[in-house]
Amino acid sequence: MPHRSRLSILLLDLPPEHHAAGSTFWAGATGRPAAPDADDENWASLGSFADGWHVEIQRTGDGTPPRWHVDIETDDVEAEVTRLEALGATRHRFMAGRFWQMLDPAGLVFCVVGVQTGEEFDRHAVSWP
Length: 129
Known about the structure:
Elements lengths: L2 E12 L1 H15 L4 E3 L2 E9 L5 E6 L7 E8 L2 H10 L3 E6 L3 E5 L5 E6 L4 H6 L1 E3 L1
Parallel strand pairs: 1-4, 5-8
Antiparallel strand pairs: 1-5, 1-9, 2-3, 3-4, 6-7, 7-8
């Protein structure tokens, strides 16, 4: 069954000891305020950039190294995960019963999530057979 997906979000994963400094740095580097999420103190957004590409800041738990990761948003998580597995990705963890944390062939972390960006998804998503 056809589905759509797009590379949509770059996340800055910052453990607690780096979160404040990293948020301040990236807000200054991009010229965008790190707008806190009103519903979740672990999230802030630097907003939407070219072609609806979002940059988000995530406070991770202790033990997670500072890193970047990307989210691929899709209108069919299972179909997209299966498509990416055929390209060499592996499932790592099913997160919160909603999305997959995966590893690319080199071991880099990325997530496959449901649609997060609404209108931007419709405008920029790729259709897959």
